[in-house]
Write a structure and sequence with these properties.
GO terms for molecular function: ATP binding; ATP hydrolysis activity; transmembrane transporter activity. This is Putative ABC transport system ATP-binding protein. One of its GO terms (cellular component) is plasma membrane. This protein is of the alpha/beta class and 216 residues long. The chain has one domain: Rossmann fold (3-Layer(aba) Sandwich), CATH 3.40.50. Helix content is 32%, strand content 23%. Strands 1, 2, 3, 5 and 6 form a 5-stranded antiparallel β-sheet that branches. It has a 5-stranded parallel β-sheet with strand order 7-8-9-4-10, with helices on both faces. The two termini are 34 Å apart. 33% of the residues are buried.
Length: 216
């Protein structure tokens, strides 16, 4: 369902990247490991269509997202890609449930409070439904960030360092929840991290490195 071919990216002449090709089938998981600065977030943003590659092609299902732009790209992303960011993006003036309703609305979906309750229940957050996101603990915020990403049952979920700030117990809990929720909605999952604790949790992983020859 995800296919990347010969993707490269350049912030500027002294900061360019060539990424390995990725082939991910429907419903499967991939862990992308790499040290700080190798371009993990950059790659995730390319796959999610937040950045445009310098060369190469990225397809999600039959759609070459590298050929989409503007509203078309936003619409496709809203319906097909869920992102778990390093720092969760909430609208602080809204409750957790209202934040989730907003994500449903932005993707053009009907507001579905039942789905919101199901997802929050699976994440152990049902009691926080009406809570303001800033009142959640760090572990709860990370779980709430997963709710934002999975609420619309996207085909692909991209998670950027979802466990970096968490202790071991919360780290493994968040990974289990991510794997469980994506499986239930039939989504594929990519996690990028430098957190070596996750390696044993994924059968499928690639190591991102940056070769000297690529640094001009
Ligand atoms: N907007 C930008 N303009 C210029 N350089 C950037 C920009 N964003 C990131 N970089 C640089 O590109 C490199 C890769 O950044 P990226 O965030 O993709 O790495 P990463 O592997 O995710 O790192 P970390 O694990 O520390 O988050 C870094 O050297 C970073 O400083």
């Amino acid at each position: 369902m995800l296919n990347t071919q010969s993707v490269s990216f350049e912030y500027n002449q002294s900061n360019s990247f060539e990424f390995p090709d990725i082939e991910l089938s429907e419903g499967s998981n991939l862990l992308i490991l790499g040290e700080s600065g190798v371009g993990k977030t950059t790659l995730l943003h390319l796959i999610g269509g937040l950045l445009k590659p310098k060369t190469g092609k990225i397809s999600i299902g039959e759609t070459a997202i590298t050929a989409l732009k503007g509203k078309e790209l936003d619409r496709f992303r809203g319906a097909n890609v869920g992102m778990v960011f390093q720092r969760p993006h909430f609208i602080q003036s809204l409750s957790l449930a209202e934040n989730l309703q907003m994500i449903q609305f932005l993707a053009g979906k009907n507001q579905d409070l039942h789905r919101i309750k199901v997802v929050l229940d699976r994440l152990g957050l049902i009691s926080k439904l009406k809570e303001n996101p800033r009142n959640l603990s760090q572990g709860e915020q990370q779980r709430a960030a997963i709710a934002l990403a999975v609420i619309n049952k996207p085909r692909l979920i991209l998670a950027d360092e979802p466990t970096a700030a968490l202790d071991d117990k919360n780290c493994f809990r968040v990974v289990e929840l991510l794997k469980n929720l994506t499986k239930r909605s039939g989504s594929s999952l990519i996690i990028i991290t430098h957190d070596q604790r996750l390696k044993s949790e994924f059968a499928n992983s690639i190591n991102l490195t940056r070769t000297e020859s690529l640094i001009h």
